[in-house]
Design brief:
By secondary structure, this protein is an all-alpha fold. It has one domain. 76% of the residues lie in helices and 0% in strands. Helix 3 packs antiparallel against helix 4. The radius of gyration is 19 Å and the shape is globular.
Length: 208
Amino acid sequence: MKRIIDLSSLFFLLIFAGGCATIQVSREVQSGRSALKLNQPKAALTHFEAAAAQDPNYTTRFTLLTTGIWTYVGRAFYAIGEKDKALASLKRAKESSSDDYIGRIYLGLVMAQTGNTRGGKAELEAGLKGLAAWLESLPGSGLEGELWDPGQRIANGISELLKMVQVERPDWQGIANNVEWLGMELEEEIENVKDDKARQKGDGGDGD
């Protein structure tokens, strides 16, 4: 009987430890996101790398839009000008999930900036079209879907970016500026949706 009790206690301790680790990773990612939005990419990279070291398969669950940790690591490397390290991280992000749309968009940009313009254009188009389709699907996905991009600001930005990418001679600096804008706009929208969901719950809504 004592052995059964001991094994049961160990099982619950492992679950508790796993939960604490997940919370810590989530906090690192949140801190990294905050630093990224404050234009502090080196600080952001420190947090993202710490999160990746603890859980290399971590994916955000803040809203319906999920992002893998390697996308955030890649974005931070990109922001400090470490293109080769950004490329490696973003490729790893794609291997983890081809539905990590912002990761594929940044991957395409960095590929183009490091010499692979054809492959970069293909990745950019795939990421932008995937993100556009995801946004279009949201109205039928419950309350949270209704909260996303109500003014179509992100959707319009994606449309403009696609036009820029699909021309014969793309303006890569202009594309880079717009990709960076889109990345930050999505981070802001994530926070807006989170706040709106919390408000709905406070008003008696189910928040789903």
